[in-house]
C-alpha cells in the first residue's frame, strides 16, 4: 500500500496535467488523449529490469517496481475511460465535427 498509493496518485496527477494542458492549448482530442497517456506511463517494465539487475530479485526495489507493473494496467484502462468520456469537451475533436 505504501508503494501502490503514491504510484496511483502520481499517475492520475500526471495524466490530469498533460491532458488538461493539451485541452487548454486547444489541441485536438486525438493528440490530447495520447499525450496524457504517454505522460502518465511510467515505463514500469524498464524500471523492473533496472531494479532487478542493480539490486537483485530479493530487494525492496524489485518489489516496488513489481507493484508498479501490477497497478499500471487497471490505472491506464481507467484513464482511457476518462479520456473517452471527456472526448466531447474538445471543440476540435473528430466526434464533434
Mean pLDDT: 84
Main sheet record: none
Radius of gyration: 16 Å
- Strand portion: under 5%
Strand segment count: 0
Summarize the amount of helix as a percent range: over 70%
What is the straight-line distance between the termini? 44 Å
The domain tally reads 1
Q: What best-fitting shape do the alpha-carbon axes yield?
A: elongated
Tally of contiguous helical segments: 4
Question: What is the H/E order?
Answer: HHHH
Protein structure class: mainly alpha
Unreliable stretches covering 5 or more consecutive residues: none
Top keywords for this entry?
single chain, 97 residues, mainly alpha, elongated
Note down, in words, how this protein is organized.
By secondary structure, the protein is mostly helical. The protein has one domain (4-90). 73% of the residues lie in helices and 0% in strands. The chain is built from 4 helices and no strands. It has helices at 4-24, 29-40, 44-55, 60-85. Helix 1 packs antiparallel against helix 2 (29-40), helix 1 (4-24) runs parallel beside helix 4 and helix 3 (44-55) packs antiparallel against helix 4 (60-85). The longest helix has 26 residues, at 60-85. It is elongated, with a radius of gyration of 16 Å.
Short précis:
The protein has one domain (4-90). Helix content is 73%, strand content 0%.
How are the secondary structure elements laid out?
Elements: H1 4-24, H2 29-40, H3 44-55, H4 60-85
Helix pairs in contact: 1-2, 1-4, 3-4
Amino acid at each position: 500500500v505504501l508503494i501502490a498509493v503514491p504510484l496511483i496518485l502520481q499517475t492520475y496527477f500526471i495524466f490530469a496535467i498533460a491532458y488538461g494542458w493539451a485541452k487548454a492549448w486547444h489541441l485536438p482530442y486525438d493528440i490530447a488523449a495520447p499525450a496524457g497517456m504517454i505522460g502518465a506511463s511510467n515505463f514500469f517494465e524498464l524500471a523492473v529490469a533496472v531494479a532487478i539487475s542493480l539490486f537483485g530479485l530479493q530487494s525492496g526495489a524489485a518489489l516496488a517496481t513489481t507493484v508498479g507493473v501490477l497497478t499500471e494496467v487497471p490505472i491506464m484502462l481507467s484513464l482511457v475511460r476518462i479520456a473517452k468520456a471527456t472526448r466531447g469537451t474538445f471543440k476540435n475533436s473528430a466526434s464533434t465535427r
